Amino acid sequence: MTTILVTGATGTLGRLVTERLRDGGHEVRALSRHAPQYAVDLIRGGSGLDAAVSGVDTIVHCATTPRGGDEKAAANLIAAARRAGVGHLIYISIVGVDRVPLGYYRTKLAVERLTEESGLGWTVLRATQFHDLPVQLFGALSKLPVMLLPAGVADQPVEVAEVADRLAELAQGAPAGRVADMGGPEVRTFASLARAYLKATGRRRSVVSVPLPGKTYRAFRAGGHLAPERAVGKETFEDHLAQRFESQERG
């Protein structure tokens, strides 16, 4: 039986990865700042992190925050993993971190490099954005009578549960380096996704696309965050919306 540590284990992705690995019969340590047993702040590190990593075979690093600190957290985790003799470090990244000059993407790319240069056996999986992100974005934008969207930008959202399945599969295998990207089943314009969201939530809003300035917008417009050749996801945005909002209505 393999002992696996999942960081960010109380988050949307980490929780699902933890569940799948436990269902597979592995001993799984769930680490996050709010986890009941391994309550560790990766940015601070310390003896709690060493205790969490001790005796672990594989680490699935899901912990992340757009508020900053991911590089420091990864460096602390890698140092603890080296001391403990961990054999395999898996990192979940984002498609386009090397093509889109967004600050958060640059940080994810820096953590990829730390992983690759860690001296540990490593695997990096890049996925497109989860369905949750456009849902949250449209929820905020639909508070106004008109939804203003970036013109010419598409997205390829993927279901988080499918990414969790892939990470659990990778955690049960040998280090594989940079594996093939994982994208959602469809590349869709922001406007079409927004209209699907409005239909699912029963809201009536005008959708207006506007051009934006800057290198980041141009990179998104060029599709730097997309992986159309790796459209391996199964659940569409409409599937996600139906499940999400029908369950809310039943609740």
Annotation keywords:
7-stranded parallel sheet, 41% helix, Ergot_Alk_Oxidoreductase, Rossmann fold, 11 strands, NAD(P)-bd_dom, NAD(P)H-binding protein, 251 residues, alpha/beta, NAD(P)-bd_dom_sf
Fold-level CATH name: Rossmann fold
Overall average pLDDT? 95
Shape: globular
Number of domains: 1
Which structural category do the helix and sheet elements fall into? alpha/beta
Q: What is the CATH superfamily?
A: NAD(P)-binding Rossmann-like Domain
Element-by-element helix/strand order: EHEEHEHEHEHEEHEEHEHH
At the first level of CATH, the class is Alpha Beta
InterPro entries: Ergot_Alk_Oxidoreductase, NAD(P)-bd_dom, NAD(P)-bd_dom_sf
Protein name: NAD(P)H-binding protein
